[in-house]
């Protein structure tokens, strides 16, 4: 992410693009409210359909940040992913990051994935995962594909304790897993049953970005 006057907002946008939908066999929807320093700035919706060996995921995010009544940042992102088990088989993602448009596409090629961005094409070998917070297999990954930038990023994932958080109007106990990479860490929250409940991250300027199920 390129730093700048709204660098912390761009970090929020990258987190939105990284998010992926919860594991399911039948069609389901998950809606997250998105907050910046506990103030609502938008939502991120996910739908997932199909069996585990032929799953389709649609992710749509919309953020607007206002200052003194004026919109100072606007973000829209839509991604359609296809999965075969724990492996990403296809991706078509478009992003409007405050007026800057980009697209990332990927499709299965040989034993890996071919990823196409405005900068060119790269080949990723083996089973590729995006930032699929829903999938417990993410806890064992050393690299994850960023759906907005098309980059394959080095990460470290580890258990990081638990705590209480507000979900759907009530306080619930959650387990936290921390994903550390090239930017600020991302704390991903799960219920005792393994449902993805939300995430937290500190963005540029020390501001807190949060997702919570609604």
Named at the architecture level, the CATH assignment is Clam
H-E order: HEEEEEEEEEEEEEEE
- Low-confidence runs: 1-6, 21-27
Supply the helix-strand structural class.
mainly beta
CATH structural class: Mainly Beta
The fold-level CATH name is outer membrane lipoprotein receptor (LolB), chain A
Shape: globular
Please, could you describe this protein's structure?
The chain is mainly beta and 214 residues long. It has a single domain, classed as outer membrane lipoprotein receptor (LolB), chain A, CATH 2.50.20. It has one helix spanning 7-18, and strands at 28-36, 39-49, 55-67, 70-84, 87-97, 100-109, 112-117, 120-125, 143-145, 152-154, 156-167, 170-180, 186-190, 196-203, 207-213. A 13-stranded antiparallel beta sheet has the order 8-7-6-5-4-3-2-1-15-14-13-12-11, with helices on one face. Strands 9-10 form a two-stranded antiparallel ribbon. It is globular and about 50 Å long. It starts with 6 loop residues before the first helix and ends with a strand.
